[in-house]
Amino acid sequence: MSDVSVIGLGAMGSALASGFLKRGHATTIWNRSAEKAEPLVAKGAVRAPTVVDAVVASRLVVVCLLNYDTVFDALGAASDALAGRVLVNLTNGTPAQARDMSKWAAERGADYLDGGIMAIPPMIGQPEALLLYSGSKTAFDAHQRELESLGTGKYLGRDAGLAALYDLALLSAMWGMYAGALHAVALVGTEKVAAREFMSLLIPWTHAMAEGLPQMAEQIDTRDYTKDVVSNLAMQAAAYANLIEASKAQGVSTELIAPMHDLMNRGVAAGHGAADLSSMIELIKK
Ligand code: FVH
User: Fold this and answer.
1) Atom of ligand 1 at shortest distance to CA of 36?
2) Phi, psi (deg, nearest 5) at residue 91
3) Residue 286 pLDDT grade (very low, low, confident, very high; cuts 50, 70, 90)
4) For residue 10, how far is its CA from the centre of ligand 1 (angstroms)?
5) Which of 12, 67, 132 maximizes ligand 1 atoms within 8 Å of its Cβ, making it the mutation to test the pocket?
6) What is this structure's pTM?
7) DSSP E strand stretches across the chain
8) Burial state string for 77-104 with b = 16 or more CB within 10 A and e = fewer than 16
């Protein structure tokens, strides 16, 4: 028996397997394209000839594939071998997919822990790598030591869908930031400003603006969007109109930024001009 089996050796799965090996855990690996196992075998991993062999090899089975369809594709063949195993699925997916997989695993006698990886592959194994888990608490407690090889683990609760929910929410904030940064760089780029040069302004600016998030959270939780307002929605909507106009004039598409303008205008039209930007959450939430 190995300590852990890793199914899926893409960029992330390979990093996970390396993380386990570095901490001295006997690791069995499997990937659809077998050649991806070679660098890990050189580091001491055992290559399983089939996915069934990989599942049989360890009580702890960690899966990291492209999406849930591919997880079902890969694990379907190993369905009968899952009984008594702890299945930790670190594949990106939706809360509904995680809950379905938890049920599917339980029907096969496996304990299920879903996970979201808030890190890129080179971060795996360092404390900065955050791994979110939800589902079986027994599984999390029993394998916390092995899972710590990957980074800092945070258990969110028994509902298997929670890790996916938090994961997607954090990715949403990341994608929003990168979308804004791409638009900003495209805009100054029209006047031949290099992206590298612009970063010296953009990075401290985004850090400074992130400082406003706790106040935003306070306003959202209390649903009082007029408390301590410094930059109200009407003012921001007026400035945003300039951003849209200038982008068009400089020949930059507004695809990445236009939806926010529509929402701001809707907020002002609904009478929330004196409120903070945070008030827009009322327009998008259920
Ligand atoms: N890489 C990253 O920066 C992010 C960080 C946060 C978490 N994500 C999620 O991790 C999952 C895996 O991502 P990845 O980076 O390892 O992705 P790839 O390098 O593209 O590897 C994909 C693996 O999936 C296998 N695969 C695809 N289709 C099938 C299939 N039908 N049956 C079996 N396996 C399949 C693929 O196998 P192969 O192409 O090498 O044969 C790779 O092992 C993902 O959910 C991210 O959102 C990564």
Assistant:
1) 40
2) -80, 140
3) confident
4) 5
5) 12
6) 0.96
7) 2-7, 27-30, 46-47, 58-63, 86-89, 111-118, 130-135, 152-155
8) ebbebbeebbbbbbbbbebebbbbbbeb
